[in-house]
Amino acid sequence: MGFEKFLFYVFAAITLYSSGMVITRRNPVHAVLYLVLAFISSAALWILLEAEFLGIVLVLVYVGAVMVLFLFVVMMLDIEIDALRAGFIRYLPLGAVIAVVLALEIFLVVGPGHFGLQHFPKPPPVGSEFSNTEALGLLLYTVYVYPFEIAAVILLVAIIAAIRLTLRHRPVSKYLDPAAQVRVKKGPDRIRIVQMPTEGVAGPTASAGAGAKQESTE
């Protein structure tokens, strides 16, 4: 066994272990941290397959941005762990059936009958002047341009839906209307002068007046 194959088995074992811990941990924060570990080990596997661009993007985009955001969101949410534990046993049979069905589907799609060196031989090694980033970009924006655009539209709709679901108008909160700010004009719309009635005059004059009133009373 070569050193490269040894690294492959090590990172593959770490990926499988961390993936299993993601769906079995009851603490959401621990599950997110294990998902970060799964992404890092998957990025190492991509680098071993000479797909450096995909490995770097997986670390920078998912681990460095998306998963950090997920971690902050999960830590800020007030998740009731006891309620999650109570519903785990109730939905365990249904979850087990769905897991078995998904495992069978994955085996039928990526099983040894469809994948392997006999179906997809190992590509010849390339030199250092080859850029897999350029090759991936050419393939993505020529052959797969329509699926790429469809995926972009789906992500845009998902972002708008997530913003709409989290947008809450509370009656006690104060907020500004941007449309009203744009339509404002100089004059009475801009500044309004209000004359407030005076409740009293503070200072030495008020003190003297109070003293004189007291003397006259006596």
From TrEMBL:
Enzyme class: translocase
Annotated keywords: Cell membrane, Membrane, NAD, Quinone, Transmembrane, Transmembrane helix
GO MF annotation list: NADH dehydrogenase (ubiquinone) activity; quinone binding
Subcellular location: Cell membrane
Residue segments, region Disordered: 199-218
Gene Ontology, cellular component aspect: plasma membrane
Record-linked Pfam families: Oxidored_q3
Chain's role: NDH-1 shuttles electrons from NADH, via FMN and iron-sulfur (Fe-S) centers, to quinones in the respiratory chain. Couples the redox reaction to proton translocation (for every two electrons transferred, four hydrogen ions are translocated across the cytoplasmic membrane), and thus conserves the redox energy in a proton gradient.
Enzyme Commission number, as recorded: 7.1.1.-
Topology of the protein relative to the lipid bilayer: Multi-pass membrane protein
Similarity comment: Belongs to the complex I subunit 6 family.
Protein's UniProt keywords contain NADP: no
Catalytic activity reported: a quinone + NADH + 5 H(+)(in) = a quinol + NAD(+) + 4 H(+)(out)
Stated name of the protein: NADH-quinone oxidoreductase subunit J
Keyword Iron (UniProt): no
